[in-house]
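RECORD TYPE: inverse folding
INPUT: structure tokens
STRUCTURE:
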């Protein structure tokens, strides 16, 4: 396995040298753009933490709450991300079949795939956490060793979260084809969670003090000391408070549990091999929902026949792959349950300035999910045409119409969900109509822009030799699209969120004229970016050959 890892590193090095030598301008431009993006993220975190710490003692309480919530959410998001990546790299990758055919111990293959999925699923959260703790060290004027100490808490935290995703993936791979067990299990868990928050949530109480109190159920769950997702927050808070003994206790707990779960990874090799062969030996029955999809699209008479046919093809591909729809359900489902319980947290009783801040934070969360889903689902659509691309190229239907079909289908998925979630959030917070309309427009235009940018750049970076969608997502083009989308989201939320915040602080006398001009200019810029990405993508995809 060392040789395989060594060859992977050599291959990465050769590809990088090739890009520097033959495409120097694009490579250096992408590198500089990435540095500016990281710098922008750091500046945004620094500004946010600077504002929170300016609140004095209240700011300290808020930051501690943020730490617990951050690690709580990250724990399950890392588990989901690792599970999806491990499924793709372990069960869908041809390299796995090749490695199994070699005289290599199964434990080593499994450990190799675990490490590969771990690196790909944690490098972006690691970068974000390092930037967060680095900015906090400067803002709170704590020792600059703090980010380094935090990294030693983060590594075992990621290992434990990845192991949870690892176990979940093996379970799903084993039972994904066994009737409707997963569907009923998911519906049951969702019903239990909904009923719990509906009937056993917090009573309606007003004021910021209740929001920051220990009575909020979400905070209670995030601070459960006997569960590992809370240990990094406890350890870092005790370290900052110079309670060295307690900090060391949580540190040792994290690493001991991390080493324990790592020892279990190779021991599950038999389960991995059984699940792997089950994926390719199970005789699938023709599912009824495929014909149902055709019936549904056949009733949309106002669309041309060729457009409906292409849509049926893409929808079938989406529904056949569990990794696709599971991610979509999980990420948007989390936001749905959060928004439906906003009144349980009594957020609607906060002052206008805090409600405005929370409204744009919710907008930011929706746009971040749309951004991530656009990179995962919209960007690789052209690459997934694969060897069949020549059929599209030689067909009498222009590629521009196929491009239009992919835009319509992607917007048909993302726009209704995004509009519903932001409307639900605004209704729960009881915000003014002006800001209700503003956030609605922001979500609609931003979703359209990110979908068109992702599809346009997906055409530019299309690689028809990729057989699994994660190969496109993990490519250099996927990274560029992710950075562009995140930069666009940060700029949008900071622009309108900042204007609204200063308005509620009575620091803007000409708020409405300034808001109108900013909104018009932002919409024009968004449409220009969308049109440029679409036209350039259509030009590049027409020039490509399989």
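DESIGNED SEQUENCE:
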């Amino acid at each position: 396995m060392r040789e395989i890892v060594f060859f992977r590193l050599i291959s990465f090095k050769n590809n990088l040298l090739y890009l520097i030598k033959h495409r120097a301008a694009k490579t250096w431009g992408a590198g500089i753009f990435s540095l500016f993006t990281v710098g922008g993220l750091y500046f945004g975190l620094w500004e946010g933490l600077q504002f929170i710490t300016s609140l004095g003692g209240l700011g300290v309480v808020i930051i501690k709450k943020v730490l617990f919530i951050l690690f709580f959410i990250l724990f399950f998001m890392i588990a989901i991300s690792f599970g999806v990546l491990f499924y793709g790299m372990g069960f869908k990758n041809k390299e796995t079949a090749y490695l199994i055919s070699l005289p290599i111990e199964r434990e080593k293959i499994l450990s190799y795939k675990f490490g590969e999925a771990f690196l790909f699923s944690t490098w972006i959260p690691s970068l974000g956490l390092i930037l967060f703790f680095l900015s906090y060290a400067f803002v709170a004027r704590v020792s600059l060793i703090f980010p380094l100490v935090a990294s030693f808490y983060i590594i075992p935290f990621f290992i434990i979260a990845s192991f949870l995703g690892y176990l979940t993936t093996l379970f799903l791979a084993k039972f994904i084809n066994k009737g409707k067990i997963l569907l009923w299990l998911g519906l049951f868990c969702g019903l239990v969670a909904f009923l719990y928050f509906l009937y056993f949530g917090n009573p309606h109480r007003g004021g910021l003090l209740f929001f920051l109190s220990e009575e909020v159920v979400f905070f209670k769950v995030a601070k459960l000391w006997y569960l590992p997702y809370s240990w990094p927050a406890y350890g870092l808070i005790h370290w900052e408070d110079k309670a060295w003994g307690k900090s060391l206790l949580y540190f040792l707990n994290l690493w001991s549990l991390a080493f324990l779960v790592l020892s279990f990874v190779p021991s599950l090799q038999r389960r991995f091999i059984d699940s792997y062969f089950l994926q390719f030996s199970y005789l699938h029955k023709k599912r009824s929902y495929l014909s149902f999809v055709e019936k549904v699209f056949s009733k949309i008479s106002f669309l041309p026949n060729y457009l409906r046919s292409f849509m049926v093809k893409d929808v079938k591909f989406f529904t056949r792959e569990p990794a696709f729809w599971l991610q979509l359900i999980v990420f948007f489902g989390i936001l749905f349950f959060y928004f439906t319980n906003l009144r349980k947290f009594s957020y609607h009783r906060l002052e206008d300035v805090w409600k405005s801040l929370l409204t744009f934070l919710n907008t930011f969360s929706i746009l971040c999910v749309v951004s991530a889903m656009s990179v995962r689902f919209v960007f690789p659509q052209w690459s997934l045409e694969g060897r069949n691309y020549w059929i599209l190229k030689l067909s009498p239907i222009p590629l521009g119409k196929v491009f239009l079909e992919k835009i319509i289908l992607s917007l048909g998925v993302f726009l209704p969900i995004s509009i519903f979630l932001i409307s639900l959030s605004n209704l729960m917070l009881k915000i003014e109509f002006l800001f209700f309309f503003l956030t609605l427009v922001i979500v609609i235009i931003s979703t359209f822009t990110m979908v068109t940018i992702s599809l346009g750049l997906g055409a530019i970076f299309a690689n028809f030799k990729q057989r699994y969608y994660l190969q496109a997502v993990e490519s250099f083009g996927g990274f560029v699209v992710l950075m562009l989308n995140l930069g666009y989201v940060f700029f949008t939320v900071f622009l309108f969120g900042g204007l609204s915040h200063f308005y509620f602080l009575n620091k803007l006398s000409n708020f409405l004229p300034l808001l109108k001009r900013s909104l018009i200019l932002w919409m024009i810029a968004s449409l220009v970016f969308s049109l440029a990405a679409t036209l350039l993508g259509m030009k590049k995809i027409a020039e490509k050959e399989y």
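NOTES: Residues 37-185+224-284 form one domain.
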